[in-house]
Each structure stands twice: as structure tokens, then as C-alpha cells.
Amino acid sequence: MSIRPTIETRAAMPTMEGAGVKLHRAFGFQDPTELDPFLLFDDFRNERPEDYLRGFPWHPHRGIETITYVLAGTVEHSDSLGNTGTLGAGDVQWMTAGSGIMHQEMPAGNARGQMHGFQLWGNLPSSQKMTAPRYQDITSADIPEVIDDDGTRVRVITGEFWGQTGPVDGIAADPQYLDVSIPAGVKKTFPIDTYRRAFAYVFEGRGAFADASSPTGVLVEKEVAGREIKLRDMTGDRTLVRFGTGDEVTVQAGPEGMRFLLISGAPIDEPVAWHGPIVMNTQAELQQAMRDLRNGSFIRHPG
Question: What pTM value is reported for the model?
Fold first, then answer.
């Protein structure tokens, strides 16, 4: 077994999207090879309704998949094919835009005005960019959760982990999407197939990810409940951790425990021509998509 080295740790950056939604972007609109097959990751977390209620009105997608995971509040969605629905706390929507779709997403807070969720964009290979759009709407109750003896909890959204298989299927990049909660001081190792690109996104608490050159951590400075806690080089809230090649990730939670997403997928290794929410392989395909938007042929209705 070989620990994946930590290539980079960086804080998600504040930005604004849609009609004025304040969010934090961990990556996106940069080098698409960094985390191929993933293109963008946003953390939309707000306590003030005025920071999110304007939402994401009608906009196009082609050539990608969008993965929305809601933790608090709701997201109402509708599209140009007549689909509508509402995502609640713990729910997931995996939308394959394929040949093209217009849709909107309008967030609403919970009873305390809180809104929290994530959106991940996954690329599609050239052979699937013009497939028919489809949705996989997954309720929280349908997402398996496994609990280890040490209290570690893992929700398996897609992929296989600890004998459970996530409910999302048929995804081109063969991804694994895990929501991981680790109690204070617990050290855990998570296997990841070597062919996958992988990253973690920490959104609660703090912890230290072991590096290949120092698999047991940098320095042990104190103990919590008899467990070693590494206080140096700890990773905290709204932080992206990008991993290199190996077959496992090891992390130790800090004194308050930690929660993070652990996401990996098979790289597509194809050229990327990218303009906002439309991602194709060539500039010619991108220009065709723009023409389709202008002349009204972007949406290919069934039949």
C-alpha cells in the first residue's frame, strides 16, 4: 500500500454566481487537467437569505454532469424539458446535461435561514457529450451510511466503499463520492484505486492528512482521549486537498473531529474546450453550441 502524497492544499475562494449567490469555489475555470474528470467545485453555504435567494436562474449546460448535494435548506429545480423537483437536506441530484439542457436552481433556507450545499461538475468523454439529458434524483434515505467501530461515519453517494454501493449509477468517470465524518483524534485510512484522480474538501472541523514522506504525521503535540493529535499542518474548514498517485489516503481528525468529502474519478484525458457551463472537446464544437443557443436548436426534445 502507498499513501497518496498531498500535492496541494488551498482555501476555497469567495465568489459570486447566478443572480448574486455568494459562495466559495474550491476549483474551477483553471487547468482542467488538475483534477480530470472534475472541472469545478462550489460550496454554497450562507446564513443570510439575501446572500442566496436570488439563486441560479435559467442557464444552459452541455457536455458535462452537475452533481448537487444539499446539507441544509432546499433547492428547487426546473428545466426546459418540463422536469421539476425539490432537493432537501441530505438529497443528491446527479444531472447529465449531455447534448444540452436549460435549467434553473433556486435555493431556499431552512427554518433558521441557513442554506448549505455543494455543486461538482464532472466532464463527459467525447462519446457521451451529445447523449440525451437525464436526472438521477436521490433522496437522503436512499444513500447508505456505514459506521465503523471507532465512530467514523461514511455516506456512500456513488461508488463502492466498506461493502456498500452508492445509489447513483452509470456515470462515465466511474466516480467515488463519499461524505466522511471522523470523531476527534481518530486516524483512518481510505483505499482509493490508483487509476483515479482524487481530492478531499474539508467543511467541518480540522485534521491532518498524512503525506507519503511522513505517513505518521508531522508532529504529535497532545493527546485527546488517548489518541494522537497532530496540531501542525492541519487542514480546516473550506479547504481543498489535492492528492497525487497512490492507493490510500490517511487522515487524523483534530480535537473537534472533522467532516469532509472524499471524491475520486477516472481521468478522461481528452482535450477541453470550455466556455462557462458548456464544455466540449474542440473550439469548433464550442462555437456550434453557441450557434445552437442563438438559433434555438440547443435543446433536442425527445422524439
Answer: 0.92
